[in-house]
What does this fold into?
Amino acid sequence: SQTIHQWPATLVQPVGSPLSLECTVEGTSNPNLYWYRQAAGRGLQLLFYSVGIGQISSEVPQNLSASRPQDRQFILSSKKLLLSDSGFYLCAWRRTVTNEKLFFGSGTQLSVL
Amino acid sequence: DQQVKQNSPSLSVQEGRISILNCDYTNSMFDYFLWYKKYPAEGPTFLISISSIKDKNEDGRFTVFLNKSAKHLSLHIVPSQPGDSAVYFCAASEWGAQKLVFGQGTRLTINP
It folds into this structure.
């Protein structure tokens, strides 16, 4: 069976510090990978998605970047965090076929102070 | 441009009654629709989906209805149970697209 791991669960970082969130998927190969963010009181906003190693699509201009160094690894990064980067970050995967559901990780609550 | 909208931020329903959550979309190219349930500090979990060739799909207590002409879908939960208290997101996708577009979510509270 497939599983998705996302860590850490919570993170408190000062403004201006770097960020690295990691997500890995097990039990499948060549998945589509996604980073979503849920800001306080808002819906799920797609930040980045990847259909293969080294292939990143950015949905929203922002202070964040994403990388996919391995088939089942997806990393969300920032060189300098802003207060507005606070939120609940979710990694997700999906099979590369049409009309498939997303499977989400457990999320990372990021507080930038 | 909010392509998927859930206009009710919250809904309160008595235990045992029917819960109806609504979702509207603007993109006529959407052809696959899903509902997710989310508890605090957890990732969303998939509930039920429907493709545009259908107008209804049932799974146990959950039924999703799709009205393509109105660009509207709804999730019915019957009977509602306390464990159903959560935030519900609807999502939509175009054929062959790589991504799902989510609504803002509706917080459902089931009262005993």
Observations:
- The CA atoms of residues 38 and 44 of chain B lie 4 Å apart.
- Chain B touches chain A at residues 6, 31-32, 34, 36, 41-46, 49, 51, 89, 91, 93, 95-96, 98-105 (CB under 8 Å).
- The radius of gyration of chain B is 13 Å.
- Chain B has a mean pLDDT of 95.
